[in-house]
Amino acid sequence: MNDTMRIAILGGTGFAGRNVRDTFEAAGMTVGVFSRTAGCDLLDLPTAWTKLDGFRPNYIVNCAALVGSVNYVTDFAADVVDVNMRINLNVYKIAQQMREVIVVNPIANCAYPGVMDIYEEPGFWDGPIHPSVLSYGSTRRMMWVLSKCYFEQYGVRSVNLIVPNMYGPYDSTNPNKTHALNALIIKFIRAVKHNLPEVEVWGTGKPIREWLYVKDFAAIARRVIEAREDSLEPVNIAQNRGYSVTELVDTIRQQVGYTGKITYNSRYQDGSPKKVMDDHYFRQRFPDFKFTELTTGILQTIKYYRDIL
Fold first, then answer.
1. Which of 127, 132, 192, 262 lies at a CB distance of 3.0 to 4.6 Å from 271, suitable for a disulfide?
2. Are the C-beta atoms of residues 19 and 215 closer than 8 Å to each other?
3. Structural contact between residues 215 and 240, judged by C-beta atoms closer than 8 angstroms
4. Fold type of domain 169-207+242-273+293-308
5. For 39-90, what is each residue's pLDDT tens digit?
6. What pLDDT, in 10s, does the model give residues 235-288?
7. C-alpha angle 147-149-155 in degrees, rounded to nearest 5
8. What CATH number is given for 6-166+211-236 in this structure?
9. Phi (first) and psi of residue 202, to 5 degrees
10. What is the 3-state secondary structure (H, E, C) of the chain?
């Protein structure tokens, strides 16, 4: 790694961004953190430009987003679209002015067509987004659109990484704002701590999802930057393996030692019935990468939340 390589992490005090920052700093990379809580409002283009221009990054890792549970992105759909689109447009306006910077986009897999069971990169545009995530998923699709259009007109380079549902440390403790697996872990830790007789799980428990330990994403982003990659064509960060919500609940219950009753509240929407990503192209680009096994990642996440709750 060139000692002069500088990486700006947008949303660097949030869930994905803080894990990326920790991983990069541990590797000796020079990083700058840019988020509202760090004094840089990415919705304010002049201020964001001034701060990023002062840092002069070689790479921008765009982890900044307004996101929450399926219910959150439905209840606050207009806010989710407005904030995320303005952030992403500002990122590319800044990258256009910097010219040599490369943007790394983690694109949530809810951008895929809602009718697909196995998400394959060539089918990214083969249908509409699932209605339950229309607001957030549409802004993730636009990340690819922005990367292609700004490359064609201005030569801005990007790396597009499609990520499944992530979990791990540093997420919100608000169940309506946190990622689904983290929300389940928090519920069960609190149930054990307060000796609650029952835990309510939102939805039917039937949906199948692929899960990525957030530090694995950070490790892959590090590899991308160390290899000086820039590739517009998106690649799934994929394991080609899904788990039902019920399977997750059983694992978490065992690991935290909860013995009470579990109920599923079907008044909350499930979202898409299945989200699993094909790993063909991932294995071509990252043939030796080893993902954190799900139970191991859950145990590490349980430890984190036990320490802070």
1. 132
2. yes
3. no
4. UDP-galactose 4-epimerase; domain 1 (3.90.25)
5. 999 999 999 999 999 999 999 999 999 999 989 999 999 999 999 999 999 9
6. 999 999 999 999 999 999 999 999 999 999 999 989 889 999 999 999 999 999
7. 80
8. 3.40.50.720
9. -75, 130
10. CCCCCEEEEECCCCHHHHHHHHHHHHCCCEEEEECHHHCCCCCCHHHHHHHHHHHCCCEEEECCCCCCCHHHHHHCHHHHHHHHHHHHHHHHHHHHHHCCCEEEEEEEHHHCECCCCEECHHHCCCCCECHHHHHHHHHHHHHHHHHHHHHHHHCCEEEEEEECEEECCCCCCCCCCCCHHHHHHHHHHHHHHCCCCEEEEECCCCCEECEEEHHHHHHHHHHHHHCCCCEEEEEECCCCCCEEHHHHHHHHHHHHCCCCEEEEECCCCCCCCEEEECCHHHHHHCCCCCCCCHHHHHHHHHHHHHHHC
At which residue do the structure tokens 């759909």 appear?
Answer: 77
Q: Please answer whether residues 135 and 148 qualify as being in contact, where contact means their C-beta atoms are separated by less than 8 angstroms.
A: no
- Which residue shows structure tokens 């910077």? 101
Residue 139 above 60 pLDDT? yes
For 40, the token pair is 């840089």
Q: How far is CA 279 from CA 147, 259, 283, 302, in A?
A: 22, 37, 6, 28
What is the rounded end-to-end Cα distance, in angstroms, of the chain?
38
Structure tokens at 14: 């949030």
Q: Where are the domains of the chain?
A: 6-166+211-236, 169-207+242-273+293-308
